[in-house]
Every structure is written in structure tokens, then in C-alpha cells.
Amino acid sequence: MRAVDYPQVLQEVEACWRDVAPASAMTLAPHDNLFEGGADSFTFIRLVRSVEAACEVTLPLLEVFEDPQLATIARCVVEARRR
To answer: CA 20 from chain center: how many Å?
Structure first.
């Protein structure tokens, strides 16, 4: 089992965000709403899929969609790794 380190996971999620984010949304903080910050549904799905591949987990899409923040995605990765 991989070690679970929230700050490291958040950095991984942020790196995925930088790979898929529109230029206007690059500077989001972890608790900013991704949709209010410039993401659309397609970008959001690309982010989730990128995080799943990078972190080797499956994320609960409904949960991260209902609270679309980088911090929420990172928390879900940590929870998935603990299972």
C-alpha cells in the first residue's frame, strides 16, 4: 500500500490541474471552486481522469463534482489509498 501524505497528494492534484487547466484558471487555491475559477465540465472530467491515472486510484465522481475543489479531490485520493 502506498503511503498516504495529504500535502504530497495535494501537490500531485495541483500538478494535474496545471496540465489540464485553461490559462485563465491556473492560479486557483486548493479550496477555490473549480467551476467558478474557469473550469468547465470537460476540463473537470479531464482533471479527474488525470488524477486517477497519476495517483492510481478511482475517484467518486459524484462526490468530487458536488464539491469541485482541488482539496476535495486530494482528500478523495487519500481516502482511496487507505482502502
So the answer is: 11
